[in-house]
Amino acid sequence: MSGAANRRRGPRERAGQSRLAALMLSPTLVVLALVVLYPLLSAVRESFYTSGETLDADGFVVEGERFAGLANYSGVLGERFVNALANTTLFTVATVSIEVVLGVLMALVMHRAFRGRGFLRASILIPWAVPTAVSGLMWRWIFQADGVANTIIGQQILWTTEGVQAKIAVIVADTWKTAPFVGLLVLAGLQIIAGEVYEAARVDGASAWQTFWRITLPLVRPALLVAVLFRMMDALRVFDLPYVLIGPRKHSVETLSALIWDEATRVHYGPASAYGTMLFLYIALIAFVFVKLLGADLLADVRTRRRVAS
Amino acid sequence: MAQHVKQVGSRSLPKIKTVIIAAAAYVIAFVFLFPYLVMVLTALRPQESLRNATYLPETFEWSNLTGFWTSGLADNLLVTLKVAGGSTILVLLVALPAAYYTARHNFRFRTAFLILVLITQMFQPTAMIVGIYREFYQLGLVDTIWSLILVNGGFNLAFAVWILNAYFSSIPRELEEAAFMDGTGRLGALFRVTLPLAMPGVITALIFTFIAAWNEFVVALTLTTSPENQPLTVALNSFIGQYQVDWQNLFAGSVIATIPVIILFALIERKVVSGLTAGSIK
Q: Which of B24, B123, B161 is the closest to A280 by Cβ?
C-alpha cells in the first residue's frame, strides 16, 4: 500500500523519507558493520597474510605483514584440520538427527492435553535456556570416573579422556540441551494443523501410524526444516560444550571452532583466519545445499507469509 | 481436559491414552530435569559427603550458596549483569527504529536490508575471532565490558530486528492513523498505540538478547584477560583444570548463574510458543 502512497507524494516528501530511513536504519547498519562486517573482512584478509615471528612484551606481533598467498591454507590438508572437520561433521549429523527424532516425539507428547502440561512444557525447555558453560560443567560432574553416569550404567568408563567415549559424552550432553528446542519448534508447527484434518483422517479410518506419516509429518515439515536448518548452523560452530565438558585441545572432540580458537590464542592469526574462512565456506555450502534440496518448502512458507503481511 | 477428547461409545479409551501420554511426558521431564537435580544437590552437599554422588545428602549445606557472595565470583556476576543488560539496551535502541521503519515503509531496499541483517546471523564470532580480537585491540577495548556489550549486541541484532518487524507488521496501520487523526502526533501515536501493542514482541526480543548475552562464552573467553573482568560463564570454568575441582562452590556459582535465565525464560516461554505459531500461520 505504501508503494502507491509513495507515488502520490512529491519529491520533497520523498527526500524527507530517505532522510528518515537513514536515521532509522543507520544504527543497525553501523553496529553490524562494526561487529560483523569489519571483523569478517579483516579475518578473511588476515588469512592471506603472514606476520613476522617477533612478539612484543604483551605477546603481540609487531613485525610488518607480508602477503602469503594460500600459505596459511596449507594446514587445511593437515591431520588436525581434517580431524576437526570430521568431528564437527560427526557432532552435527549425530546431534541434529537424534534431536529431530526426540524433538518430534516430545512435540507429539506436549501437543496432547493433560494435567500439568504447561508446567512440563516449560520445565523440559529449561535446558535450552541454561548457559552451555554451566550445563557443560554439570555433565562433566555426571561423566566423572566415579560419577552418576557410571553408577547408573554400572561401568567404569573414563568419559572425559580422549577416545570415542568423549565424543559420545559430547553428543549426549548436546542432545539433552537442544532436543527440547527442536521439540518447541515442531510443537509450534503442530499447533497450526487444523483439527478438521485429523477428524477427516479418522472418519476415513486411518490408523494412528498412517495419520502420523501421511498427515502430521508432511504438515509439520516446514517448521521441522526451519528447525533443522537453524540447528545445523549452530551445531557446525559448536565450541563451548566440548571445551567445558572434555577440555581444550582434546583431539577426539576438537571442532573447527575449537581449532580456530586455539590457533588464535597461540597468535597464529594467519592459520586461524584461514580455518575460520574455511568454516564460513563449509557452513555456507551446507546451508546452500540444504536450501537447494529442500528450499521449495522453506520459500513457500516465506512467500505466503509475505503475501499476508503486505 | 480429557472431556474434550471423549467420544460416545469409547468413553474409557481416550482416558487411558491420556494417562499414558501424561506419564510419558513426566518421564521425559524427569530425564531432562535430572541433571539439574544433581547439580542443585551437589551445590548444597557438605564437603565430606561429596563422593556419595548418587545419594541424597542428609544435610543441606546452605552456606555453599552464601559462600558465593564472599568469593570473587560476585564480581563476575556483576560483569555478567552489566554485559547482558548493556547488550539488551543496545539491541533495543538500535533494532526498534529499524524494525518499525521496515514494517511501516515499503522503500526500495527494504527486502535487501532485512536479508542483509539475516545474513549476519550466519556468521558467528568463533570463525572470525581473529578479526574481532584485532579490531577491539586497535580500539583499546580488549578486556573491557564495552567490547562484550558490542559483540553480544551485534550478534543478537538480527533476531531482534526480525521479530520486532514481524510484530510491528501485524499491528494494523489504521490504529496508528486513527490516533494520529485524534491529534496525538506521529510520535504520540507510536508511543501510545503501536509500542504498547508490540510489547510482547519487545519483551521477547529483550529477554532473548539478555539470555544469549548472559550465556555467551567464547567471545568473553577471548576478549577478557583479567579474572575480575570475566563474566560468570568464563570465571566458573577457570575453576576447572586446577589441581582440585571444588565442585560445591562451582555448582553453587552455577546455580546462581542459572536462576535468572530460568526465571526470564519462564516469563517468555508461552510467548515463544505462541509467537512461533503465529509466525507460521501467516
A: B123
Q: Name every chain A residue with its beta carbon within 8 A of the beta carbon of B254.
A: 134, 137-138
The domains of chain A, with CATH numbers, are 2-46 (no CATH), 73-309 (1.10.3720.10)
User: What pLDDT, on the 0 to 100 scale, is given for residue A239?
Assistant: 93
* 3-class state of residue A179 by DSSP: helix
What does the alpha-carbon distance between residue B127 and residue A259 come to, in Å, rounded to a whole number?
10
Q: Which of B120, B161, B217 sits opposite A133 (nearest CB)?
A: B217
CATH number at residue B207: 1.10.3720.10
- Domain interval for residue B184: 70-276
d(CA A162, CA A247): 10
Q: Determine whether the interchain pair A106/B281 forms a contact, defined as Cβ–Cβ distance below 8 Å.
A: no
B63 falls within a domain: no
Q: How far apart are CA B132 and CA B127, in angstroms?
A: 10
User: Based on the domain organization, do B267 and B156 belong to the same domain?
Assistant: yes
Q: Is the ipTM of this complex over 0.95?
A: no
pLDDT at residue A310 is higher than 90: no
Question: Any chain B CB within 8 A of the CB of A187?
Answer: yes
Do residue B26 and residue B75 come from a single domain?
Answer: no
Which long-range CB contacts under 8 A does A15-21 form with residues at least 24 apart? A17/B105, A17/B107, A18/B107, A20/B101, A21/B101, A21/B105, A21/B107
Q: How wide is the angle at C-alpha A123 spanned by C-alphas A121 and A125, nearest 5°?
A: 75
Contact between A110 and B25 using a beta-carbon 8 Å cutoff: yes
- In angstroms, the CA A35 to CA B161 distance is 16
The chain B residue lying nearest A308, using CA atoms, is B282
B156 and B249 co-located in one domain: yes
Q: Quick check: A188 and B32 CB within 8 A?
A: no
Residue-wise pLDDT tens digits, B100-144 = 999 888 888 888 898 888 888 778 888 889 999 999 999 999 999
Q: Is residue B57 part of a domain?
A: no
Residue for grid cell 518447541: A184
- Residues A207-241: tens digit of each pLDDT: 888 888 888 888 888 778 878 888 898 899 899 99
What tens digit of pLDDT does each residue of B223-265 get? 998 988 999 999 988 877 655 677 777 888 888 888 888 888 8
How many residue contacts between A and B have a Cβ separation below 8 Å? Answer: 294
Task: Classify residue B57 as exposed, middle or buried by CB count within 10 Å of its CB (0-12, 13-18, 19+).
Answer: middle
